[in-house]
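Fold this: ABC transporter permease
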Amino acid sequence: MKKFLINLGLLLVVVAALMAWTALPWLGVAALAVALALWMALTRSGRQAGSVTAVGVGTLRQRLGSSSVIVIGIAGVVGVLVALLAMGQGFQATLQSGGRDDTAIVLRGGSVSEAQSVLTRDDIDAIEQAPGIARGGDGKPLASAELVVTASLHKKGSDDDANAQLRGVDDTAWALRPKLKIIAGRTFKPGLNELVVGQGAQREFAGLDVGDEVKLGRQGWKVVGVFASGDAYDSELWADRQEVAAAYRRGNSAESVLVKLTGAAAFEPFKAALATDPKLKVEADTTRAFFARQSETLAKTIRVVGITVGVIMAIGAVFGALNCMFAAVASRAREIATLRAIGFRSVPVVMSVMLETMLLALAGGLLGALLVWLVFDGYTASTLNGFTDVMFQFKVGPALVWTGLKWALAIGFVGGLFPAVRAARLPVTTALREL
């Protein structure tokens, strides 16, 4: 019963330590590292722990195979976890980078995306007259009624079809998106079946080079330009809204209205004016908030999948570390017993085994993070956002690398704790009799 309670208490300590570790910022970890270094330098027990750790690390060459299991296993955990989180972060950054605080998007009330919204000509006219909208040099409001439809295209190097987003825009759409630049060809001319395509869509789909003809809906369209914006618009095709509406039989309707405000402070009065207009049933939001909401669901799903896969792999890595460290403790039983017999206490023995395991875990974490950074940082991929493909880049930043290293050290902590406790509990007389 006593042994069971001790083991239960140890398990509770592990759970509490892991919960505290996950919430610890890098400054807290740095403080812990400094405290450990001071303990090892200034106390007798610390110096003993350093001596035993040095002996253990010195024998790693003799245990190269088992030590490699720990390093490679943890590198795999960190690599998979950081890669999946980088995917979610890259997707979220791509969508959110198209948002601003001084531009607003207006949809039909209750709509969560442009595809679910329908605005009539009267709605569009009323929105454009709302207060707070900036005006161009010609005195007209900087507002663009926009229509989004799904276009089926062939992927490059494949016979598979995929959906791209075709956006019909008004002339003012360019002024509302200052980051968007034509990098090849020219803009489309209103009244003609002409397209400009995002650089991401051009890389992903066949037949979108300048001068190509592509069939969308029931009509043929000529690609006349390529644009770059560095956000989700790179995945789209743009054309004149009236031509898109005619090709897809949408009449004179739109799905959203994008407006340029006189400033970020003008949003609340603009929103209030729309809400108090009895003829309108619309909802307005800043484009920054709108795009953040659009990316939230998929990014959260990717994070959940990444953490779930990481936990499953981490459990396997923990068992691998436990197995290797138990074997290491067993092979050094006489050595540990001798140290204890000549005056080394249990704490230095426990700390030495823990430090050895966590050093191996740190090596595995650094290896996994380095491989992911070399392979995936800036890697371009695509995923479905609703019914259309969105191109984005993986982003392996310092924060994700730090997350991976924290996971690696947590695995090392759990994998080394139980073998360390066993080493400290091993009776000296029993260990000295072992060959």
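The two ends are 31 Å apart (CA to CA). The mean pLDDT is 82.
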